[in-house]
Automatic annotation (TrEMBL):
It is found in: Nucleus. Keywords: Nucleus. The lineage of its organism: Eukaryota, Metazoa, Chordata, Craniata, Vertebrata. It comes from Rangifer tarandus platyrhynchus. Belongs to the HSBP1 family. It comes from the Eukaryota. This is Heat shock factor-binding protein 1. Homohexamer. Associates with heptad repeats of HSF1 trimers and probably also HSF1 monomers, and with HSP70. Association with HSF1 trimers and HSP70 coincides with attenuation of heat shock response and the conversion of HSF1 trimer to monomer. Pfam families: HSBP1. PANTHER family: HEAT SHOCK FACTOR BINDING PROTEIN 1, HEAT SHOCK FACTOR-BINDING PROTEIN 1. Negative regulator of the heat shock response. Negatively affects HSF1 DNA-binding activity. May have a role in the suppression of the activation of the stress response during the aging process.
Length: 75
């Protein structure tokens, strides 16, 4: 807005419309990013639950991070 000072009501209206459009665009971008992150979070959460269910069905338990043994072989 520093480059042009509005001289008329039409100029002021144009400047305000431009600023509002820029704000709306930024808000939409931020909203899309938030929604995208939430969707990704829920997908990861669902994936973790599905993996845990499959491990339980297979009789596998997680020990020491990556080492997995069948539950039937536990001492």
């Amino acid at each position: 807005m520093a480059e042009t000072d509005p001289k008329t009501v039409q100029d002021l209206t144009s400047v305000v419309q431009t600023l509002l459009q820029q704000m709306q665009d930024k808000f939409q971008t931020m909203s899309d990013q938030i929604i995208g992150r939430n969707i990704l979070y829920f997908r990861i959460d669902d994936l973790e639950k599905n993996i845990a269910d499959l491990m339980t069905q297979a009789g596998v338990e997680e020990l020491d991070g990556e080492n997995k043994i069948p539950a039937t072989q536990k001492s």
